[in-house]
Please model this.
Amino acid sequence: MKNHKLQLIGSACVAALICAGQLGCSKSDADSGKGSPGSSGGKTTLQIQGSDTMVNLAQAWAEAYRGVKPDVSIEVGGGGSGVGIAALINGTIEIATSSRDMKKEERAKAQQQSGKEAKEITVGFDCLAIYVHKDNPMNEISIEQLASIYAEGGNLANWSGLGGNVPGCQSGEIIRVSRQSSSGTYEFFREHVLNKKDFKLGSRDMNGSKEVVDLVMHTPCAIGYSGMGYATPEVKMLKVSAKAGAPSYPPNIENAQKKTYPISRPLFLYTLGEPQGAAKEFIQWALSDAGQKIVQETGYVPVPKQQQAKL
Model:
């Protein structure tokens, strides 16, 4: 969760092949006449796309896995959980990353189009953190207060309604920073914080998790939600309580594992049917001690061994 970790991840991003916006590069190089996996000069390409919350994690995995399997090229893209799941259903990628559950209608469409059931693999956990500017005097917030800030019909629009003024925020207005509707983070927040109500109009909807934190960092009036792996010293993560008057907890590994932080969530990989070949080997490695160490290094919570999927 430290800034230097994010800097290390950033260097990994340069080495990883990123295919954001290119959904049609999931086949092995054998399909394009460049040899078959395991043959001399042959490479297999795995396309992973989806959750912006998980993009740094997936890129760090891709860089580390290149040293484990030099003949496997992993291309990582974001765009949101919904984008990755749609690409998986269309058969243009092999692995989708998602910070939300796959919807019933998505599972049905995958079955209809491919004849295969979607396979869900939990590869880590995240606390959905609530970010404010580092100079904001607030230290905690409740789920009800968050709903009143973000949900349609909610009446919290000014920081004075939360008990004080924010240095540098001349208007006193709460600037709501959110995510685009294709984001799994958006869907999770709507379901678990807003109780499936619609968002108020007028929020600043960002394309990526990092962009949410960056805007909050430069905007004293702002509040935003994003994965805890994107924390920097320039923002503050609030403690969150399940309801007014209940104990509040900070987003961290311990509270995610104990499930005391009220908006923690699993992080998923999805495949069509049981993963096979190079995809299966990669997912097994992601669940190994080496892969799970990277989960922790990128600011998220590893999967306990007893909960790891057996592939």
User: Anything to note?
Assistant: Confidence is low (pLDDT under 50) at residues 1-40. The domain at 127-258 is CATH 3.40.190.10 (D-Maltodextrin-Binding Protein; domain 2). The longest strand covers residues 118-133. The radius of gyration is 20 Å.
